[in-house]
Amino acid sequence: MEDNKVSGVTNEKQELNEIICDSSKFSFARSCKEETITPVQGTIKGKIPIWIKGSLLRNGSGLLEIGPDKFRHVFDGMALLHRYHISNGEVTYQNKFLRSKTYNRNMKANRIVVSEFGTKAHPDPCKTLLQRLMSMFVLNDHTDNDLVNIVPYGDEIYVHTETPFIHRIDPNTLKILDRVNFCEQVAVNIATAHPHLEHDGTVYNMGSSLASSRPLYNIIKFPSTTKSGKSKFDEGTVICSIPALSKRNPSYFHSFAMTENYFVFVEQPLTVSVMKLGISSFTGSSFMDCMNWNSNCQEENPKTNIVQLEGSQAEAYVQKNGDVFLKYEELTEKGPVLCELPRINYDGFNGKKYKYFYATGRLPEDLQTYLIKVDVWNKTKTIWLEEKTIPSEPVFVGRPGATEEDDGVILSAVLSDENQNKVFLLVLDASTFQELGRAEFLLDSVVPGDIHGLFWPAT
Fold first, then answer.
1. Which pLDDT score, from 0 to 100, does residue 24 have?
2. Are 413 and 425 in contact (CB under 8 A)?
3. How large is the average pLDDT for residues 250-262?
4. pLDDT at residue 333 above 70?
């Protein structure tokens, strides 16, 4: 089967994408023109539980235009960090752009000079032709615009995207404290923005190493404790290497899974061209320009379902060539934008059998966003919906001393359809999914949508 470029596939849905991106309901299409550096006090409605002490930290695209140029993908805008600080039933809000090297280079040039996931850059006027040519041989000369996630490494927090560059930030001021290129310690060129954590603080991630004769998928480990004078990144190690099926087109992967005893990785048919990626710094190509869809899998009259999970309706069948043909179980409605950003009680149940997950969803008729709680055992769901609002990824915070999986609250930053300068922090009872309270803010600039984040307890 002939390879199909991802751009070719997405062109078939271009009309839908334009409708979504132009809609006031699509918060990722917004840009913040003025930071809120000084914390702003929120107006409380209802009651914010006193036991919640800490900050909801969020990360996402915050600026989609630089000079005459526009970013073309929601993973591309300049990273904007948000902080909702909760103390004694009160809430403050602030935000700040991540002053990465990419941000500074773009602002200095007043246009996009560093390629992103879906946006091709202009030649950097600060680089000579020879410098651009030499960048072909530096695979790690890519964006450090860490706009996807916020991850704890012990008592420090770092922001991530899908390159090896991460930034340590101050959880109070949102300023950069350090910049780490962890491919200098471990053999990866690309890494996920979704590491996994053990209870002792050990961090695991997964990345691709493209330097060998055959690309490798490497599982990397950063220990919770280190020898005197060394950072956890200095002691990072590769604990497992999985050879890619293709020598030139390894799989693209956004995340991986971890249980108490296993790592779970899916080598999917969405692939990355090593050759195109290697010269992308010179050509200015985006990461998406380097991707291809290489699926040849077809169902071959399956006989035995190898899924043995009790209560699951998912199916998996081994084909004659050794491939596994999967049929997922639908727990929510169908559709490309109907259920996203799932979270669980991670601290208590990651890698274990859990009962509940929380996510965002959209109604198909008008794209109204809602929050959903799904009981995966009983196949039931509960929805929180308020018209003309756009809730973000729901974050579970357990109540101190809790013994039940859903004993705690759900925190979500909720934007407005009608006034893009409005936002409120929503607090739901995670068990009943009923609102406990909210803190409302009216700011001087637009509040864009965010992607991922975490709750950082006060110390």
1. 61
2. yes
3. 93
4. yes
Per-residue DSSP letter, 122: P
Name the nearest CA neighbour of 167 among 65, 253, 76, 96. 96
Gyration radius from the chain CA atoms: 22
Chain centroid to Cα 214, Å, comes to: 28
* Residue (of 53, 258, 232, 257) closest to 157 by Cα position: 232
pTM confidence score? 0.89
Torsion 275-77-197-372 (CA) sign: negative
Residues 6+ apart with CB under 8 A from 345: 354, 356, 396, 398, 405, 406, 408
Written as six digits, the tokens of 54 are 């800490």
- CB contact at 8 A, 362 and 371: no
Confidence of residue 276 (pLDDT cuts 50, 70, 90): confident
Pairing of strands 422-429, 149-153: unpaired
Tokens of 4: 């199909």
**Residue 336: HSE in the Cβ half-sphere, 13 Å Cα cutoff:** 5
> What contacts 413, CB < 8 A, 6 or more positions away?
56, 58, 82, 84, 391, 392, 423, 424, 425, 426, 450
The answer to whether 163 touches 143, Cβ cutoff 8 Å, is yes
CA distances from 244 to 213, 236, 274 (A): 10, 22, 12
* Inter-residue contact 431 to 71 (CB < 8 Å): no
12-41: per-residue pLDDT in tens?
A: 445 445 545 544 667 888 999 999 999 999
Burial class for 298, CB neighbours closer than 10 Å (0-12, 13-18, 19+): exposed
Exposed, middle or buried: residue 154 (CB in 10 Å: 0-12, 13-18, 19+)? middle
pLDDT-derived band at 70, boundaries 50, 70, 90:
very high
Specify the pLDDT at position 21. Answer: 53
Q: What does the pLDDT read at residue 309?
A: 84
Question: Using CA atoms in the order 406, 407, 408, 413, what is the torsion angle rounded to 10 degrees?
Answer: 20
